[in-house]
Design goal:
The protein is α/β, with parallel strands linked by helices and 423 residues long. Helix content is 38%, strand content 15%. The strands form three sheets. It has a seven-stranded mixed sheet with strand order 3-9-8-7-6-4-5, sandwiched between helices.
Length: 423
């Protein structure tokens, strides 16, 4: 079998008929070398400084770039109070936990973190479970809650961790934010399955758009199902007090399961589940990640301070939104298509994946570090440059990037919006 490298994507190499694991790996290596030779390989670049709006990147010829590749939206990975809290945790407890939570790895700072994240959502301490990563918060929880008698009904744009979590159960997907399709599946599933769990994101990671939570919640309860919302890109950013996409709907205490991560707004690593206390207890003692994986390290005490800063220093969220609004308005003013984003995730849709790679290369050459996103992360004809805006981006960072996109829009056939916005 021959794969056309000029039109290939990563997914084409997952399972090649007649190729064993080593042959697939060898062929994939050839493809990556081809991509590198054309300047289209923008993945696993070496960062030499911490997260930030400017980062030093590169192994052989490192240089500083304006960065839009991290989800440290409020800049808390570099906040002095967050760093000091993490240092204090290490000084008190050491660098690791060396055990799983069930057999010796559950420390007082874990208890404090569970209490703090529960309180953040207005819940009691026994309604939260903390995981070592946000990915496993989803995958491990779903694998233990849903079995072959149950069904997961998922928006097609949910995170890969949700799909992995559904491998032991039945799964139906509905087109992104399509309420009619969701209702049809709920109707058809009513008498067929024991547990019906609808799973959506609050903010979707590629388009940065929001779910119609109120409408989905109404449908879920109409058909006696449960609702899980993964709000990793909304928490700390959206909502009147930064409690995410659910806060302003009045449903913060009604959604059955809220999942999230500490690796974005809170500037660390880890994940959490907020749910009913009996369900939380079941997850603690039944999920494989809770049973067999070591707990988060003592530096997690930095998360506790980050949670407090959401309320103590709201100016970070306010500055982030000033940056988002300015950046998006100016991109749209050039006629560039940022889709339906209403978050800190701003895509510039280009369409063709290889043109997207070329744009990504030229942005790098101009000192701007972004993520070209292609199939299978998005549809084949919906490739884009994806950017995460931070509160710590300065206006000159945004303006330099805007000037680069204006230059790119003249060189490449980039998707245009029909209505042009005034600057």
């Amino acid at each position: 079998m021959s794969i056309n490298f000029e039109k290939a994507t990563f997914k084409d190499f997952e399972n090649i008929p007649g190729y064993d694991m080593m042959q697939r790996a060898d062929y994939y290596y050839e493809f990556l070398e081809y991509m590198k030779s054309r300047g289209r390989h923008h993945y696993r670049l070496q960062n030499n400084t911490g997260c930030g709006s400017v980062m030093n990147v590169g192994e052989t010829a490192p240089k500083d770039y304006i960065s839009f590749v991290t989800s440290d939206y409020l800049g808390f990975t570099q906040h002095p109070k967050v760093k000091q809290a993490a240092i204090d945790g290490i000084e008190k407890y050491g660098t690791g936990t060396a055990a799983t939570p069930l057999i010796g790895g559950y420390y007082s700072f874990h208890n404090e973190l569970e209490a703090k994240i529960a309180s953040f959502f207005g819940r009691s301490r026994d309604e939260s479970v903390v995981f070592t990563t946000g990915y496993t918060a989803n995958s491990a929880t779903l694998q233990i809650l849903l079995q072959k008698e149950d069904i997961a009904i998922v928006d097609m744009a949910v995170h890969a961790s949700v799909y992995e979590g559904c491998i032991l159960t039945n799964r139906k997907t509905f087109p992104h934010n399509d309420l009619d399709a969701l209702e049809m599946i709920l109707q058809a599933s009513q008498e067929k399955y024991r547990t019906k769990l609808v799973i959506i994101d609050g903010v979707y990671s590629q388009d940065g758009d929001m779910a119609p939570i109120k409408e989905i919640y109404r449908l879920v309860k109409k058909y006696n199902a449960y609702l899980m919302i993964d709000d990793v890109h909304g928490i700390g950013i959206l909502g009147r007090t930064g409690r995410g996409t659910i806060e302003d709907t009045g449903l913060l205490h009604h959604v059955d399961i809220i999942s999230g991560t500490f690796s974005k707004t809170f500037g660390h690593l880890g994940g959490y589940i907020i749910t009913h206390k009996t369900l939380a207890n079941f997850i603690r003692f039944q999920s494989r990640q809770q049973i067999f994986s070591a707990t988060a390290p003592p530096s997690s005490t930095g998360i506790i301070k980050a949670l407090e800063l959401i309320d103590e220093e709201p100016h970070w969220r306010e500055q982030l939104w000033r940056n988002i609004d300015y950046f998006k308005k100016e991109l749209n003013g050039m006629g560039l298509d940022t889709g339906t984003t209403c978050s800190a995730i701003i895509p510039v849709k280009i369409g063709d994946p290889h043109i997207t790679g070329d744009v990504g290369r030229q942005l790098i050459e101009q000192g701007i570090y972004t993520n070209p996103i292609i199939y299978p992360a998005v549809a084949r004809k919906d490739a884009r440059i994806r950017m995460s805006v931070m509160a710590t981006h300065q206006k000159e960072h945004l303006d330099k990037t805007l000037n680069a996109f204006e230059d790119m829009s003249k060189k490449f056939p980039i998707t245009r919006i029909k209505k042009r916005f005034k600057k």
